[in-house]
Amino acid sequence: MSTQLSTQANRQSAEALARSKGEPNWLVELRGEAADLTGTIAWPKPEKVRIERWNLTAVGNYEQPAAAGSVSELPEVVRELVSEGTENLLIQRNSGSVWKQIASELTSKGVIFTDLETACKEHGDLVQKYLFKAVAMDEDKLTALNAAIWNGGVFVYVPKNVEVELPLQAILYNDNSEATFAPHILIVADSHSRVTYVDCVVSEQGTAAAPFVHPSIVEVFVKPGAHVRFGSIHSMGETGVDMTIRRAVIENDGQMEWIIGDLNDGNTLSDTKSVLKGQGSTSDAKVISVGKNAQQNSLTTQAVHFGKSSDSNMVTRAVMKDSASAIINGITKIEHGATKANGVQTEKVLMLSPKARGDANPILLIDEDDVTAGHAASVGQVNPEQVYYLMSRGISKQDAERLIIYGFLAPVVSEIPVEAVRVQLQRLLERKLEG
Amino acid sequence: MATHFVIDGLKAAIEGKEILKGINLEIKGGEIHAIMGPNGTGKSTLASALMGHPKYEVTEGSAQINGEDLLEMDVDERARAGLFLAMQYPSEIPGVTNSDFLRSALNARRGEGNEISLIKFIRQMESKMKELEMNPEFAHRYLNEGFSGGEKKRNEILQMMLLDPKIVVLDEIDSGLDIDALRIVSTGVNAMRSEDRGFLIITHYQRLLNYITPDFVHVMMQGRIVKSGGPELAERLENEGYDWVKEELGIVDETVGQA
Known about the structure:
Strand order of the largest sheet of chain A: 2-1-5-7-9-11-13-15-17-19
Helix content of chain A: 10-25%
Strand content of chain A: 35-45%
Mean pLDDT of chain A: 93
Distance between the termini of chain A: 36 Å
Structural class of chain B: alpha/beta
Low-confidence stretches of chain B: none
Number of helices of chain A: 10
Order of helices and strands of chain A: HHHEEHEHHHEEEEEEEEEEEEEEEEHHH
Number of strands of chain B: 12
Oligomer: heterodimer
CATH superfamily of chain B: P-loop containing nucleotide triphosphate hydrolases
CATH class of chain B: Alpha Beta
Low-confidence stretches of chain A: 1-5
Structural class of chain A: alpha/beta
Strand content of chain B: 25-35%
Number of helices of chain B: 8
Number of domains of chain A: 2
Shape of chain B: globular
Radius of gyration of chain A: 21 Å
Order of helices and strands of chain B: EEEHEEHEEHHEHEHEEEHH
Shape of chain A: globular
């Protein structure tokens, strides 16, 4: 019988667990320090969503992972996500990695694609240089919690000038709500390298579903001239609380693309931020979300411009059903000195029920004169003129609304870089929109 | 079966204000009827009421295609029964490509189990687009999004050609068209003339009727058809305007439902 940890992770147990897993000293110390912090700092405070009212205590206990003999042993929910013939695949189940493979061709070029725990042991110096450097562990209780208890995770390193043609795919799934499920994903793309990474975060708990929390952090380092595409679909059950912080630091002429599908059935805090540090750096973020039942979603995208001539674009589209709510924040911040920067953002919410709620809050904070910036936001229902137009061509009302809703989400769906994941996203959308 | 379309005593209101005050019109397959009239006389309301626009309430009358009353049907059923309205202001639908939309519409028309194959559909669509001198890239663009006025009208005609309706209502199809586009659109309409199909063309201007010769011309004022005739009526209206009609009928204000 496992006892549930309180969210204030405890220094002794965090350090003891880290030591028992053979983690390097610097990491044991980091976990201890973070565990202390969880007792002293507050949860993040997103606009208009009181996340402290969510069930945030069910962080579970570490479950020793058991490696899978083959992908075919894994449950259907995982297998259907696997891109056919892929050679670059990593699977985390609950608290740890159970499967990993990488094409030998990539290994020979120096590409690293492994779980973060292994990376801390095998590439400690490299990991230490970046871990919790984009997101500080003392930002709030969520970052501290992840630092104290993270497990499994993903580490990607692409050396200078190496272009990874095929996407790297990770699947992170939870089928035991009593197990800690707290991945940390760290991606480092060295100068002029290029990589596409796609992950899916899913849960499957059948009828015995109990509350669980998924505190997750993604850090991406885009070195000069590098190009990173990051795609992610989250589709966890309604007893799960998803809190995911994603952050990229982009150097000179680096390019970052975010493609995010927040399709959980439970409460979701999703915060995706690009720090445009370098001159000529660019970021493009696309986020979609579908909410149902009484689900609450806090979806934030941010772009912070330091670099001259840096460019950011953020698009968020959310469809809310039933009494679901989405509070969408878009924050474009242009710092003094970031001349010729350009930041554009659009947030749109489509509400399919009178009880659904949507809020779009575009925020532009500009401390430099010589810049361009723009925003657009809208909250509304399916336009009856559009429905009439489609019906006037013989399309049924149901199909007309369906076309309009899918069309609303199309700008993000069509960008998902892995075919199997795109197909799965379509399936998830259908299930969520029509279920 | 030759098409037979009968509008009988049609009255319609918007926001409680009666606009159509009893329209009677009979269109047989092969015939082209034109409805002309100044602004604000109820011409476009007739088109919208026939199609079933949610803002218009039909208060009396019927509109039957081969004995089936359209006004009892939902908008999509009217379309599947053979009514087509080329709209004055077609909606823009972001995220839905023109070709996906056209295929959905065509398949809705054909019914479940009788869907058109993708290859056959593309062949059909491409050949019709060629007839209308449309750039093939319009198939992949989002429906009407960013289309110019003329491109939207051509796209309406493309839909008409693919859906093969029994009764076609063209609502101000000539507005916003330059002469070239007008010629192309008219050629498209003329190519669709057949014994199985009737046309109702709503227009301000006689210009369109130089390209599409109507069999009957009707003048609408105050929510009614006040005068009918042959093509010569359109010519007289073009030359002399509407004042003589008003004078002849003792009409001072021809508009209806204006504040």
